[in-house]
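Lab notebook, bench 4. Still working through the backlog of constructs that have no structural model yet. Next entry is a single chain of 513 residues. Request: give me the structure tokens for it.
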Amino acid sequence: MATQPHFVVVGGGTAGWIAAFIIQDSIKRLKLEAKISVVESTKIPTVGVGEATTAAFHVFLRHFGIDIHEFFRKTEATYKLGIRHQDWRRKGFTYYGPIDDPHQVIQPPPGAPSDYLNVYAVSAGKKVQDMHLFGPLLERKKAPWAKKADGSLLPLGPFLPAYHFDQSLVGRFLKSKSQGVEIVDNVLTGVERDGETGDVTTLIFEDGQRLDGDFFIDATGFRKRLIVKELNAPWVSYQHELPVNRALPFWLDIKPGEEIANYTLAWAQEAGWMWQIPTQTRYGCGYVYCDEFRTPDEAHAEVERVLGRKIEVRDDIKFSIGRLENVWINNVVAVGLSSSFLEPLESTSIHGTIVQMMMFAGQYLRDPKQMTQALRDDYNRRVGRQVDDFRTFVNTHYVTEREDTPFWREVRANRIHPETRERLARWRAQMPRHEHFPNYLFGLPHMETQLHYPVLDGLGLLDPAVAKAEMARDPKLRKFARETYESLVKEYKQAATKALGHAEFLEIVREMG
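Model written out:
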């Protein structure tokens, strides 16, 4: 009798549990008689850092029937409706990147090109962020909910939010919601491989126990325990174009009665940028900087000077920015920090994990005996392109007017990637369109125009004259776009006056529990 295939996720944490949920779901859908195990050790402490997601995480929670309010209560989560970019374009200049897309709620005239509302906003010299519901909510630190007369909650708009949370709590929460997954609490010390194929066959643990498997997901984070230590996967560095390579993390407490931000703060500094990610009780913060321009002591002093207070530094993290050349080798697929790492400017890590696992489960998952080299090559090509796109988008944030420190002068002069320059040259001649982003992720969400427009607009990288010329070609569409833009701005400003404060909303949700 054939034994059922065994899928083993090595490493719990957020990435490991996302992988386990998605693979288990697909195994059921494919009616594949298979077993799934997650290997994680309670002996290895997880670092509780503030983590931010994209709306893909909301879709993930919904798909698995997870109650969003319970999620808020158990993980100290907060809303993330966008990113506040402070001092990037120049010192003293702030812009927001809201993550909702107003094009979703408007029925365009027949034949209207994609992104016509964005094009209109740029042509009229108006802020792109203002026609987003999340725009005024971000500026006022409001939740996307109002309170009805009877005290019940009323959602504002159909747009999908994202979240901030303490990632160690999320791993635990997802573990508590898993069903039918074997949990192996042990410390991995060795690996056995097939002498002919090179496939991983067995995990060996510190107490001598062994676990055989047919397919392995490496979710061991920076350790890359299987994909690099065993299978020697080569690395593609992004260090040149994404020059920050060191992080100084710290916490700031949220005082009682203080309003809680509903955005990730990305605040440009002298040699990099500082993040602030709110959970319900504190901000997970850090300064990611380039150690060619700052020592750790100088970075620490700079943070204290900027904040006007002492901080307690929790670690000194040096990292390599880039991705594996191939994330799938033999019978091992790497996800999360095992597969790539970019500075956390656009919340690409968890987003990438969800999209990659959905793509793997939806298009490539089979009985391990039927997974071919052709499947591996195709998956590796698509994931590599996805992460290269993340790199180019993050690199675009560094095309700024700043020349006030050696770091910013160096970045401006020498660190802009050729692909970034190529895209910006194209968008100086024509406005960015949905069609400029080829769909190679089988329709799964990606960094496309809805995220690019607020950043390109905020950095002053779009030419209003080009937008005007495009709008002038269709006066009817221009009139429709103007009226739509104005009505959205008016409607969303009014909605923001009714919206609950973010802290008040979180308090209501906690009391529900």
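Notes after review: The chain has one domain: 6-241+320-471. The first helix runs from residue 13 to 29. Flag for follow-up if needed.
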